[in-house]
Design brief:
single chain; alpha/beta; Rossmann fold; six-stranded mixed β-sheet; three-stranded antiparallel β-sheet; 8 helices
Length: 246
């Protein structure tokens, strides 16, 4: 039996939301001075969700906007701590969850390579050895010493993907980040992802492109309102999802 890389057991994530937000800072301070308490309501981004991802699987996650897909990825990556349940993850993770996450817009692209790769666990010596490969794959050679704040969203996506895949993680998490790239670069990213799949890297892919999920994933999870609705082979899961939204 393949080893389990990710195991979520009854995972829940709750946010506390203000029912009525003060419209201005002055209003907030006056209410605080008067001792007025603000009522909160609970929003459950994930609710009792369980899933298992095995080594070498390409695992797709689908669902409408707001279904809890990105929250689940953040819980897997360790960005969020679950309110309830348990999350067990084996091996190193490279998460491409939010565009620009782990980057400093005031730093150059080159400086951000060192920053982001160090967050992913590489030493300065390891980053130095991989630096040129990251720059070459990203095709950002002429911009690499410019501040990141001057980059387009597509350029930031290129840099993020290049760093994450050059790190060679045990688990690669991708959340729609390639949708901002041009077609030629997306094709090159897909070719690199094929190499990862062939050598047994575990991948989690969130995408609204259901054809992509059907083509590349071994398994798929359909989420709705923070809950796991169905998990299994991509074809039947996608079919059930499409019936639910039609």
């Amino acid at each position: 039996m393949d080893s389990v890389m990710i195991e979520a057991t009854d995972v829940s994530v709750r946010y506390r939301l203000l029912k009525e937000k003060p419209r201005t800072l002055q209003e907030y301070l006056i209410q605080r001075l008067k001792g007025k308490r603000h009522d909160h309501e609970d929003f459950w981004a994930l609710r009792d969700l369980s899933m298992t991802v095995r080594k070498g699987e390409t695992f797709g996650i689908i669902g409408r906007n707001g279904a809890g897909k990105s929250t689940l990825l953040k819980a897997i990556a360790g960005v969020l701590r679950p309110t309830g349940g348990s999350m067990r993850v084996e091996g190193t993770i490279a998460p491409l969850i939010e565009l620009g996450a782990g980057f400093d817009p005031e730093l150059t692209g080159a400086e951000n390579i060192y920053l982001n790769a160090s967050i992913l666990g590489l030493s300065r010596g390891q980053i130095k050895g991989k630096f040129q490969g990251i720059v070459d794959f990203s095709e950002l050679r002429e911009f690499i010493y410019s501040p990141l704040k001057s980059y387009s969203s597509g350029m930031v996506a290129r840099l993020g993907f290049s760093i994450a895949t050059e790190v060679d993680p045990d688990i690669l998490i991708i959340d729609e980040i390639l949708s901002v790239g041009d077609k030629q670069f997306v094709r090159k990213c897909n070719e690199r992802m094929d190499l990862f799949r062939k050598k047994g890297t575990t991948m989690l892919l969130v995408s609204h492109n259901l054809d992509e999920i059907a083509d590349v994933c071994n398994k798929a999870l359909w989420m709705d309102h923070g809950k796991a609705m169905m998990c299994g082979e991509p074809g039947p899961v996608i079919e059930r999802y499409l019936r639910s939204v039609s």
